[in-house]
Amino acid sequence: MHPVERIGYRHQMRDALVESPQTMPAFSQSVRVPAHVLVRQLAGESVLLNLQTERYFGLDEVGTRMWTHLTSSVSIEAAYQNLLEEYEVEREVLRRNLSDLLDHLLANGLLDVSAE
Question: Is 14 a domain residue?
Answer without folding.
Answer: yes
